[in-house]
Fold this protein.
Amino acid sequence: MNQSPRIVFMGTPAFAVASLKALIDAKMNVVGVVTAPDKPGGRGMQLQQSAVKQFAIANGLPLLQPEKLKSPEFFDALESWKPDLQVVVAFRMLPEKIWSFPPMGTLNLHGSLLPQYRGAAPINWAIMNGEKETGVTTFQLQHAIDTGDILLQDRITITDNMTAGELHDIMMEVGAKLLVKTLNGLIDNSIKPAPQNDDTIIKHAPKIFTKDCEINWEAPVEKIHNMVRGLAPFPGAITKVEGKIVKLFSTRIQKEKPAEQAGTFITDGKSIAKFACTNGYLLLEDIQWEGKKRMPIVDFLRGYRKA
């Protein structure tokens, strides 16, 4: 194929917008966009448009917002665009009838170095598990989620204090570039899909639930620090102090054997607040106390009075 295929793009959040913009900037032939229906949110629960919808409208791209991906009406509308290829970035799980019908199939951009961290939250779990490296993968969709043949990968270094939010923003741009590179490779037939290697021990990245956010103070301070940054800025690592729920978003490690019991909240009331762990202290840089907004620890301590 020596010209851009007819591409349908599917995505919803800001992460996907970077990829869609990269395709448009690269003069790819995007013939339509599929995104989530508008949902109530914000003050007054007004209907909110997805980031991808806003970008599509601003750039005059045809748009579909199906309530049900298995509806005949959606398939007919999709088919009318005559796509050669579909590109999925941060979207819902597609029925086989949808992902399999274009002649070139459907490719996905995933936020890990597959086969590692298959699942809904690869950015969070990579940091929570203390990984020093992750990356992005383009691959072909097939029956089992995140298991299709790999097209291209690019690696990203995870620094010691990097949060999930920071990694998200880096990955968003790296992934967009990799997606364009992948499409160019498919167009000039320079990419050969490769099966994923399942012979190694595979770490998974399931959806994050409340129980995954609750801090166990008996864990090493390094593990708790990784958990905090892997859950920042959303949904936030959770603990309790003085009977109140506290969320932690930015922390540092103080390697010093504590005299206090693990989980003890310690502060000088001015600029320092920390939790004792089994093998060190977790220094707090910002915090969200129950009933208050997220704020730097210095601002919080100005109004803090120990119960």
In short: The first strand starts at residue 7 and ends at 11. The domain at 7-187 is CATH 3.40.50.170 (Rossmann fold).
